[in-house]
Amino acid sequence: MYIETFGCQMNELDSELVCGQLRALGYGFTARRDDADVILYNTCSVREHAEQKVWSRLGELTERKVREPGLVVGVLGCLAERDGEALLRRMPVVDLLVGPGELDKLPGLLDNAVRTRGSMLSGDAADEHNKPRSAGLSALQGNTSRRSGTLAAAADTLEMLDLSRAVSPVEDGGPVSRSAYVRITRGCNKFCTYCVVPFTRGAEVHRPPEHIIDECKRLAQAGVIEITLLGQTVNHYRFEHGAAVTIGGVVQPQKGRSYTGGHRRDPFAGANVTTFADLMQRIHDEVPEVRRLRFVTSYPRDFGDDVLEVIRDHPRLCRYLHVPAQSGSNRLLGMMNRGYTVEEYTEFLDRARAFLDQPEIGRPLEVSGDFIIGFPTETEEDFEATMALVRKARYKNAFIFKYSPRPGTVAYDKIPDDVPEEVKRRRNSALLALQQAVSEEVAAGYVGREVDVFVTGLSIKERKRRARAVAAGGVSLTVKGRSVGEPEEDDGCGSGCSTQATHVETAQEPSSGIAQYSARTDGDMIVVFDAPEHAGLVGSIRRVRIEESSAFSLRGKLV
Ligand code: SAH
Ligand code: SF4
Ligand code: F3S
Prior knowledge:
By secondary structure, the chain is of the alpha/beta class. The chain has a 6-stranded mixed sheet with strand order 5-4-3-2-1-20, sandwiched between helices. The chain has a 5-stranded mixed β-barrel with strand order 19-21-22-24-23. The chain has a 3-stranded parallel sheet with strand order 6-9-15, with helices on both faces. Mean pLDDT is 87; it is low at 172-176 and 475-507. Iron/sulfur cluster (SF4) binds next to helix 9.
């Protein structure tokens, strides 16, 4: 079996859970698509470009499928949910579709698909035009059955998928995964007018805190020291214990009812409610082995002081916030249905910095953001307002996307995509150039400082160098494509996500000589440094003195 993941961290985590579940059922994985008899793509639909990648991957399989009638092809994730069964008609190479809200059904469908295809003779497996015939299986949530009520949430078997996460101990010197994602909230209720996520991922539901803490404990016992909590609007996490429903002894996830109205603290926080701040504090206190706790992605509105205080007062909570603004124009923010103004956004940034930006004690706050360029009706004046916000916000980095109309969204239906492509392109380059200059300045502030870094692996440069050396020796080596040390193509959400094959070999730590390593600061700045090859360096936290900087990374020396 082969699985490739597109899109955001949610998808990466989903692929990990799906792989664990399928492994437990006896399926084996390969890093080479050509060797696999089952091919799964876990897909993203956030922009058209993300979808096109999947279409071309699927197109590549048509011929092979006619030759190999037993081949099973599955599309999981947001594209499956968005396009629905139309996808099977357009791409008959696909045998099964599973939306992100139905992944718990994958093993059953897969079993069915393997049997169906196994029984197809080569003649049956293609139509008269020699196009493959699909097994035609699907599990999709559908817009009409959004898991919107407490009862629908109570029947949430997806929770079992998260609960059954296979956690294997980190092996010394072996494949390194001391860093893990933990989902705290599924779905999204915001309905920004450009965005497919509420349609593909369904309504917001919060996981019970006990499940989250238990998962963190199990990961910590297995050797994980860095955890990133995931949610589309992660800071809206809120769980009401009085209203919790238990089925078969398992507390069920709860529909999203975050507080609104500009409060800086949840007015109903207390014994019966676990707020986001409470959750962070509990993980910090109850799972001390986790030396770094982060969270993405934050929603700028109603970011409570309670959360900022908890981060300030707990040393293992990272001072890094990813808070997309999307635009610097109040007119466009309104059309996007973002629910805040630029003034409110910058007030939040100032407040966050007042609480958390303490470079003098070696703990600066770093912030990153997302922007959409060329949203319908965007004028030069709107764009200038976005440039002004980028100047003011001083992001360490920002993910900048050209607007892509998504079928099914309000913007797609109601607001024509009227900004010409070349205008989008020009504004995109101008904003990128500005952000690059800001990133350079932020990075330059680190030169001469000492920082603690979490060593994530060999740098991309080092891995490419090794891959070339191995290839020159006639053997091919696949380098795992996770972002380290260098900027990379971004195809999914704005959270530094990348297209990657999930079960590709992890580059092993080297065994002799000097290697270039990549690492991250508490504020998520990328640091590269050369060090003697040393088993155990990857996955540990080390102190580095920063000597040089660029817009994309810092370069330093181990202290
Ligand atoms: N929940 C997060 C974002 C999830 S999608 C939030 O609200 O901030 C990740 C990013 O993709 C968004 O921040 C946005 O910048 C971008 N994006 C989403 N839909 C898009 C579209 N239709 N066209 C271009 N960019 C889009
Ligand atoms: Fe939800 Fe974020 Fe999409 Fe808005 S941009 S609808 S908050 S996922
Ligand atoms: Fe879905 Fe994540 Fe893409 S939620 S649409 S995979 S950005």
